[in-house]
Design goal:
There is one protein chain. By secondary structure, the chain is an all-alpha fold. It has a domain at 26-149 and 162-222: Four Helix Bundle (Hemerythrin (Met), subunit A). It is 77% helix and 2% strand. It has eleven helices and two strands. The chain has helices spanning 2-19, 27-48, 52-75, 81-109, 120-151, 167-188, 194-218, 227-232, 238-253, 255-280, 290-299, and strands at residues 161-163, 223-225. A two-stranded antiparallel sheet has the order 1-2. Helix 4 runs antiparallel to helix 5 (120-151). The termini are far apart.
Length: 300
Amino acid sequence: MPRLKTEAAKESLLRRVRKQRLKYVTVLPSLITILNGVCGFVAVIFASKGAFAMAGYMVLLAMIADMLDGRLARMSKSTSSFGGQLDSLCDMISFGVAPAFLMFEVLQEFKLAGFAQPSATFASFLHRFVWLAAAAFISCEAIRLARFNVENEEDESAHMSFMGLPGPAAAGVIVSLIIFHQETLPELLTKDSRVFVFCESAIMYALPFLTLGIAVLMVSRIRYTHILNQYIKGQKPFSHLIWLLLGLGVVIWNIQVALVLIFCGYAASSFLKWLYYKVMRKGEPILSGLEDVTEWESEK
């Protein structure tokens, strides 16, 4: 008798699985999401061949695809659990594996810059630390994506801020520094100069520590503002236009420098605000950025 009940339960479970089988998908958003993952895969290939700047640009292209797919899905009112899961899988490749592998390959290519000069013990520690930073970045990106899938709401009004540093922004910090190191630094300084050697060593030293730091920020509970929804979309104060024009001016002047300023500034902004309220104000509520929007709406 218990065996019959078990078989009946299994049959009931199989029937429910068949009913939940996926029949329809939204084609265009799904194709753009897959493009995101393909760009991440191509970035890994470029990084393995030593084309570090091209690998960085492929991650940036993946970010554009990541912005477009969700926007198209919400505009067409075709958001689905399938789209969310597919997006997370592709994000794991483009903003988890690709930046970590790129960081690791850059440091291997340049023999960890000046890491081997102080002592063999210190060099060994830093070499292992690079492995740790890369593994921590991938792990934190996976945790952040899983948490986002559980807590995410499909309503557009819920996308005014992010809990923790978004994965694309974290990847942007790494790839912008690598692109700056590969393309802009050799143009500004001659490779034989002491200033070039100092700047190159500073970037190489900072990169693994920065990678570990932004990995922690991804899984933190620090709120980061959604720049598009809060500062660009809809009616905004005139000062927002001025800041946007200044930003465009920096991009036109030098896009590599602009990428470093934008991504590093964004990653540091909410962390410094959190640190200020935590240390200086000692426990006062930390503004998430939503309060500014509320005040602006009430003044209109």
